Amino acid sequence: MVVKKRQYYGFNGFHMPPVPRAPRSARGRGLNKTKVEDSQICAFELLASLAGKLLQESESSASSNASEANDQPVIGGGGGVKFEQDDDRPLRAECLDHGSCGESAFFTRFSSPNNDQKCLLNEFPHAESNLFLERSSMIMNSNSSKNGGADLKSVICKSIPGKVEGSSDSRVSCDGYVDNGLSRQKRCDRLDTRGLIGDPCSSNDPMEKCMKFPVLINSVNNVELPSCRDPVTSASIPRHRNGIKLGIRDDAENFTRCNKPLTKSKAFRPPQRIGDRRIRKLLTSKHWKVGPKLKDCEFSKPAFLEGGVKSHYLKRKLCYSRERNQRNTFYKRRKFTDHSVVVTSDGGFSSESVCNSPDKNMTGDKNGASIMFHANGVSSSVIGHQASFHSKDSQVKFSIKSFRVPELLIEVPETATVGSLKRTVVEAVSAILGGGLRVGVLLHGKKVRDDNRTLLQTGITSNENLDALGFSLEPNPLQVSPPSCTEDPPALLPCDTSQLILRSPTSPIVDSGISDALPDLPPLTNLDTNIESNRESASSHADIVTDNTLSDSRALVAVPPVNTEELAMVPLNQKSKRSELVQRRTRRPFSVSEVEALVHAVEELGTGRWRDVNLRSFEDADHRTYVDLKDKWKTLVHTARIAPQQRRGEPVPQELLDRVLAAHAYWSQHQAKQHSKNQTAILKITDAHAVRNGVEDIQSI
DNA sequence: CTTAGGG
DNA sequence: CCCTAAG
């Protein structure tokens, strides 16, 4: 609402004073009354956008923190980082910059429905003008908040130094807005975290962002926070003028993601995760209780300015968690200085897996600890936009808002300069763009595969509601026919492979056997999930379209990419799917090598020391928690006991399974007998299984 | 936070 | 994988 208002005034030549005003609730109401025409962005939309922005910020905070350590409000500086976060929508691109500039950009765009193009040009005087040319038609529709993929273009532009400094005007107004709106919240947060955050001006603290949401929620009860990364959800935002859905969970999720990555070291991972989860829970369920009761002002101002977090349960919780997380992070950093530092803005639930192997490789490199920016799930969210004007000559006009980078994995030495990082990013992007990118066409969520059919035949006509049209980036040009992974399991391998190749244009991703590094191309075992995701997204999409049609057929609609296969869209889809559940981590089947490591560790440590096992053998596998290992062991034992025919997933060598049984048996007994040296038992067991390796390992213990 | 176990 | 009880 605030945004809306601000924007509204701004367009009429007014500038909201950067002075605190009445509670948002009040302002908000007034605004509603003042509601302008359709072309005006709905308050909710803006709110949602804002929320999205915040979310995105939070997501990127981890990396941002790292990159902004030098206090550089560099717009392009975060280039590398940005890509990571950009796994979703357009907001993202703008939001990536945590500096004020970034904000201004963001607000400018979304606050000037009638003037978007102009603003854009202002913001990106150079390249943008060209790049965004296409947007004009779409923008004219006033649907400025329609989602789009993180704008690759803009990102690129931003990575070019000095490019975006942009219009100071917009910034001013933005700042003003911030002050009126969320600033208080921010300040409060800072108070609490002072000292923890290096740059007080950069609101890149994950917690901070996360904590803002409740505020938003307060003011708008019937609004749901959409996940930033969910194209589907976000797409719907503009259209649902009445009931916007905000997927809180995503916020939490985002938060989680941004929160954990600072270091890869395993040791501190668990804490973070748990903390996140706690927060997540709070956000998901409890906030509903807490939020509505509190006034906006209550929530954000008094308690925190006074340094007292007490007044607000939720807030305190969050702060506490954050602090703890921070501590953990720092501790970890110190502790693992000679390990490579990995900054991943986990684009999704999967980034970890992708990083997994590379990290291992990097670990050896002491001095040149590397900073890895992992753009995971930076998918190409694409938006097909209809031309709202139907030309008589049957010309179909398309306006593609933006494409996002499918994925980027960039690895540069810590000693590398920011400039070199930028260049690297540019190269990576270029490689992707120039390399093998394909564009897919989606109609009503379905991929149009027949390239030979005419638009007319396909149903893409100037008369048709092009809202249902979408484009997708397909990273793998090699794939002649879009992989229907769901149909032919064997086909999965090719998919995976090709993707992997494509995904690491700059630096090779070393896959240490984690086959599902790519969430979008899950191994056999993930098929179901994938299918579900697709189904989900499809249905969501349908809803959206319907709504849109009803409410505003003119509005440009971002058609959420439905083909999970080509794009790293899974996170998005999953989000929509689980928008109401607590986020679930992506499934990452254990590779044989991992199993081997696990077995070996257990053989030595036993089955009751999962933390040690984790530390010992999965130090570099951030995503493997001791619980994971324990669970895996559990399943391994089970697997070893069932008939080979009943086993699913990547087959585990019988030899390993034998060792599993042997070790399991041994440790079962060992534990039972309390260290009673029963060599006999061991021998017996091992004999029974005739596992030589197992014997050796066990005996060597 | 870890473990252990059920879901 | 998630969730939870329990230590």
From TrEMBL:
It is found in: Nucleus. Coiled coil: none annotated. Residues 61-70 have a biased composition (Low complexity). GO terms for cellular component: nucleus. Gene3D superfamilies: 1.10.246.220. GO terms for molecular function: telomeric DNA binding. SMART domains: SANT (SM00717). It comes from the Eukaryota. It holds the Pfam family Ubiquitin_TPR1. The keyword DNA-binding applies. Residues 583-641 form the HTH myb-type domain. Residues 61-83 are annotated as: Disordered. Residues 582-637 form the Myb-like domain. Keywords: DNA-binding, Nucleus. PANTHER family: TELOMERE-BINDING PROTEIN, PUTATIVE-RELATED, TELOMERIC REPEAT BINDING PROTEIN. This is Telomere repeat-binding protein 3-like isoform X3. It comes from Populus euphratica. The lineage of its organism: Eukaryota, Viridiplantae, Streptophyta, Embryophyta, Tracheophyta. The gene is LOC105127568.
